[in-house]
TrEMBL record:
<feature type="domain" description="RCK N-terminal">
    <location>
        <begin position="3"/>
        <end position="120"/>
    </location>
</feature>
<dbReference type="Pfam" id="PF02080">
    <property type="entry name" value="TrkA_C"/>
</dbReference>
<dbReference type="InterPro" id="IPR003148">
    <property type="entry name" value="RCK_N"/>
</dbReference>
<dbReference type="InterPro" id="IPR036721">
    <property type="entry name" value="RCK_C_sf"/>
</dbReference>
<dbReference type="GO" id="GO:0006813">
    <property type="term" value="P:potassium ion transport"/>
</dbReference>
<dbReference type="Pfam" id="PF02254">
    <property type="entry name" value="TrkA_N"/>
</dbReference>
<dbReference type="InterPro" id="IPR036291">
    <property type="entry name" value="NAD(P)-bd_dom_sf"/>
</dbReference>
<dbReference type="InterPro" id="IPR006037">
    <property type="entry name" value="RCK_C"/>
</dbReference>
<dbReference type="InterPro" id="IPR050721">
    <property type="entry name" value="Trk_Ktr_HKT_K-transport"/>
</dbReference>
<dbReference type="GO" id="GO:0008324">
    <property type="term" value="F:monoatomic cation transmembrane transporter activity"/>
</dbReference>
<protein>
    <submittedName>
        <fullName>TrkA family potassium uptake protein</fullName>
    </submittedName>
</protein>
<feature type="domain" description="RCK C-terminal">
    <location>
        <begin position="137"/>
        <end position="217"/>
    </location>
</feature>
């Protein structure tokens, strides 16, 4: 399988961090921005950096975007430009188009013209941080469904020195332990004889309410 290819339109704080992270993860990344300095600054870190106005359909048509896996539209407040480029990349058949928006109206418009996903980075980060302040690290969990999550859980003091079999967390809390971490070492798929030590971190899957209760124990 070849490397995944993404195009990022707009190199504000959001677009730039998405582009650099994708490149860091080994993806091919093409970036487009009409600001010369931003293009110059990022050029050595991405596959291809193009100075262009994203509404310039002619230039965009020369970029060979047809086979890209995804497009990220991060041109900020310019709704008209975001709409145009969303329509253009969808017409080219790019399967996944993600757009950054600031308001519900922008979200509605961009979805209507074909964006597969819209994100509100400031709003979403604000919610995540507030949840973290209230619930500790609970919201660092990976949500598996609306009911279940996978998360890291500090071993409770009453668990120290006991085996997983003795603790019987599956029966008691309906949670599954899929790994145990201790000082950087990760024991994947522990056996029933695994003894839980002080400072162990359990990687578990369970119901959100249960996990939240155990986290705040
Ligand atoms: P953030 O809030 O993530 O920092 P900004 O709205 O500040 O994002 O940044 C938007 C980026 O999009 C800027 O780098 C700007 O140069 C670029 N941009 C805006 N309009 C266009 C356009 N029509 N063509 C190309 N780039 C654009």
């Amino acid at each position: 399988m070849g490397k995944k290819e993404f195009v990022v339109f707009g190199l504000g704080r959001f677009g730039k961090s998405v582009a650099l992270t994708l490149a860091d993860s080994g993806c091919e990344v093409l970036v487009v921005d009409d600001n010369e300095e931003k293009i110059h600054d990022i050029a050595e870190y991405v596959t291809y950096a193009v100075k262009a106005d994203v509404t310039d359909a002619e230039t965009l048509s020369t970029l060979g975007l047809r086979n890209f896996d995804g497009a990220i539209i991060a041109i900020g407040e310019n709704l008209e430009a975001s709409v145009l480029v969303t329509i253009l990349v969808k017409e080219l058949g790019i399967p996944y188009v993600l757009a950054k928006v600031q308001t519900d109206t922008q979200a509605k418009v961009l979805k209507k013209v074909g964006a597969d996903m819209v994100v509100f980075p400031e709003k979403e980060t604000g919610i995540r941080i507030a949840n973290k302040l209230v619930h500790g690290n609970f919201f660092d969990a990976i949500e598996l469904s609306t009911t279940f999550s996978m998360m890291e859980l500090d071993a409770l003091p009453e668990w120290y020195g006991k085996t997983l079999s003795e603790l019987d967390l599956r029966a008691k809390y309906d949670i599954n332990v899929i790994g145990v971490k201790n000082r950087g070492k990760f024991n994947f798929n522990p056996t029933a004889e695994e003894i839980i030590d002080r400072d162990d971190i359990l990687v578990v899957i369970g119901r959100n309410e249960t996990l939240s209760q155990l986290q705040n124990h």
